[in-house]
Amino acid sequence: MQAMFTAKSFNRLAALAALGILLAATVSAQTAPRAPRSTVIGGKAVVMVADIVYAFPEARPTVLAVAGTDQGLGSFLQTVDPSFPSKPALDRSAGAEVYAALKPDLVILKASMKKSLGAQLDALGVRSLYLNLETPNDYYRDIAALGAAFGAAGRADELAAYYRGIVERTQAPTGAAGARKAPRVLVVQSSLAAREAFDVPPKSWMQSILVGLAGGDPVWFGANPGEGWGRVGFEQIAAWNPDVLIVIDYHETVDATVAALRKDARFKALACGKSGKILGFPQDWYSWDQPDTRWGLGLLWLAKALRPAEFARLDLAAEAREFYRLFYGFDAASFDRMVLPRLKGDYALDK
Q1: Taking a C-beta distance cutoff of 8 angstroms, is the pair 194, 249 a contact?
Q2: DSSP tag of 293
Q3: Which stretches of the chain score pLDDT less than 50?
Q4: Which candidate among 79, 104, 259, 271 keeps its CA 20 to 30 Å from the CA of 337?
């Protein structure tokens, strides 16, 4: 039998539907976590976590304490937050009780910390957010998560669009236009104090991903199947004989290490030495190769280093200025005063 609806029954159904929508909205408002009014950032690899949190202006006033963010070249966040030096500096290995004692609305940690701290923080009633921050795709997801946590979805979209745009710009052309031999690239972490020690990253890390995105052929793949940096000697480097050698230093200025390698007769005999392609990854407070907010700048720099003809018109100074404006609100004068003097490595690729 076909149902018959009168105006009265229709109005009753409409009223019930409206009530259902109201109830659903009320339940959603009750269950959705509110934006935190107090936040603590800690754990290992806190630099990456803190830098992306501070890229959200909505989050900055909520930060109560941050674990140590100086990798050896200074602490960046005091340039963004004048009150930063007065905030408690937590130990990176602090236990859950330390976080709970601060009574924050939210603790933000690297995802790798969940195994050691997650259950304890839950037991103490401390709300936590874990960020992966290891790959570009991780960044897109984690930025969205921060946007949701701080009620800043628009800001999250803006930051994610910045990174997606850089990845798109640096993709090598396909077909006949892209028929070129990829340079054989080796990325090593080293320092002047330990110049005979060279470490290569795992294939899954950001450093390796950036080389591939920039159009290089990572020669060390397969040599480090572990979860951290793997040690190699000069004999292995010579066997790889890379076209481009990229040197990273997190704790000291990279320029001195690169200058020493360029003078070293062993390295001068390699393909990278003969072509003048022993390069220092740019640094300011932090090296641009890490899964820190600066990885987009690192990708642009690598693309220009490996494909100079294609990126001849890329203005890295302008790119750095735009990054600091978008992420941290630096105007031109602030950039010139605080960032420009700190830029080290082969930032301008003019050597």
Answers
A1: no
A2: T
A3: 1-31, 175-177, 351
A4: 259
Give the pairing of strands 198-200 and 230-232. Answer: antiparallel
Q: Contact, 264 vs 278, CB < 8 A?
A: no
Q: What is the pLDDT of residue 178?
A: 54
Q: Give the closest residue to 260 by CA, choosing from 241, 274, 273.
A: 273
Q: Hey, which CATH number is domain 176-342, 3.40.50.1980, 3.30.457.10, 3.40.50.300, 3.10.450.590?
A: 3.40.50.1980
How much is the CA Rg of the chain, to the nearest whole Å? 25
pLDDT digits (tens, 9 = 90+) for 285-333: 999 999 999 999 999 999 999 999 999 999 999 999 999 999 999 999 9
Q: Which of 49, 293, 288, 291 is nearest to 160 (CA)?
A: 293
Residue 140 carries which side chain, given as an amino acid letter? Y
Residues 197, 198, 204, 206, CA torsion sign: positive
- The pair of structure tokens assigned to 103 is 């009574």
**235: number of CA atoms within 13 Å, CB side?**
0
Residue 194, both tokens: 């330990």
Global pTM exceeds 0.90:
no
- Beta strands 217-218 and 106-110, pairing class: unpaired
Structure tokens, 52: 């992306």
- Helix 295-306 and helix 206-213, axial crossing angle in degrees, nearest 10: 40
Are 97 and 91 spatial neighbours (Cβ–Cβ below 8 Å)? no
Distance CA 196, CA 101 (A): 45
Domain ranges of the chain: 39-138, 176-342
State the number of CA atoms in the 13 A half-sphere of 147 facing the CB.
Answer: 15
DSSP 197-212: -EEE--TTSHHHHHHH
Instruction: Report the top-level CATH class of 39-138.
Output: alpha beta
- Give the angle subtended at the CA of 290 by the CAs of 64 and 251, to the nearest 5°: 80
